[in-house]
Every structure is written in C-alpha cells, then in structure tokens.
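User: Can you predict the 3D structure of DUF4190 domain-containing protein? Sequence below.
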Amino acid sequence: MAQTALVLGVLGIVVSISGLVLGPIALSQAERAEDAGADATAGRVLGWLATAFGGLTALSVGLNIVFLIVVLPRFLGAWS
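Assistant: Sure. Here are the predicted structure tokens for DUF4190 domain-containing protein:
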C-alpha cells in the first residue's frame, strides 16, 4: 500500500489536473499503509502536493475560462 500511495502521488503531480482525484486516494492509501505498520511518508507528502497542484491547476483553468468568456469579448469589442 505504501508503494501505491507513492505511485499515485507521483502520477498526481505529473498529470496535475488528475491530482484532485489521485492525491486524496494517495493520502488514503498512505493512511492504510501506516495503519499496517509501513512507512508511507513519501506517499503522504506526494499526495498532499498532488492535491495542491491539482487544485491550483483547476483554479487556473477556471480563471482562464472566465477571462475568455467575460474579459476578452469586451477587450476585442473596444477595437472594433
């Protein structure tokens, strides 16, 4: 289970938008591994990082969509 937490944490960071899903799963797996007596500190840390990066990526995508829908048409309308 500690290896699963580590792998999910790394994948969540590499594919950052999936960090919102894989990060909490990595945290859950790390907790299960620690309950079983294994050291899963790396999985726990990477799970938190993946969750944070996934959240920042989702926020960035959301703000870009708002920009494209709200701000850009007003800016382009001023040029015509």
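The chain has a mean pLDDT of 89. Residues 23 and 79 are 44 Å apart (CA to CA).
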